[in-house]
Sequence to fold (342 residues):
Amino acid sequence: MIKKLIASIVVLSLILMGIPAIPYSQAADTLQNVSDTLSDSKPSQTATHTFGFTISTATSSAATIEITASDFNWSAANGTCPDSGTFSTTTNGVKCTYGSGISTGNKTLTVSNVVNPATQGSYTMTVETKAGATTLESAQIRVAIVEGVTVSANVSAVLTFQVLGTEAGTTTEEGATDVSTTATTINFGTININTQYVAAQKLSVDTNADDGFTVKVWQNQNLTNAMNNDIDKFANGVTSTNPAAWTAPSASSTDENTFGHFGLRSDDDNVEKDYGSNSWIGFYGDGTNYQHEVFKHTGPAKGLNDNKNEGWTFVEYALEISALQEAGDYSNVLTYICTPTY
Fold:
């Protein structure tokens, strides 16, 4: 049976920074479909771990599911065990305790308030099911702690995720872009009123993941200046889950949401939203709970050596303000998350 593992890559971009992703690995094991998705991979940061796995060996007597990783700080961890197990911390990890045994099937164990190691590097986690002191099934996952990147992987897996800049005049499905970008910045510069500006970044994924991958993006906040004025979400600050044709801000002096807006779209026809040839959407909200899928493929991909929308695609960002938009330097941070499934 092909073991499955979900890996998450985070890349920071807009205005501040962006970091390419790296591959990850997992040793051979008997515990099936093992994965660990982290919410934050930066050194010394507090993160939530979502462990997924399939148990094949059931027990009818007292048993435990144990996660062990000595380099992480688990002292303040709390979590939710599958099948109503009792959660507790150990010296080097956490465990779920079952008085009458463990059932087979797909399981999810979520552990929050885990502090990452202070040093960047690759760290091993062990996932085990036990009956007393006897290990029934086990697997090892290697998790990379890198500034701005979250990685966990299978030994034989290949994954390279890149965010690449584009020149002004690059042709996308939307048309020619107005702004040059890099892998680490999208700088619209000084903008004129009543003018739509379009910038693009190129996303590239090289992986041998049998079930392909998805790339999602979220923002930490609206574009905001030092006076806490913001450029709202397309369109006019009204949250919508359906892409629509670009429109200028309506510029009502009694509603600051209409002074300007910022939106995004993807060239990839395989993503969850239909962007067509000229449709845009605003971020649903701010933070990790509001992720937009901007790239998706259902099999292995060869990155820039592949076809568009298979190994690479464009994601575009548009900005337009009215004469009412307050002056200042505006910025925010975008986070890309690449999740392959092996």
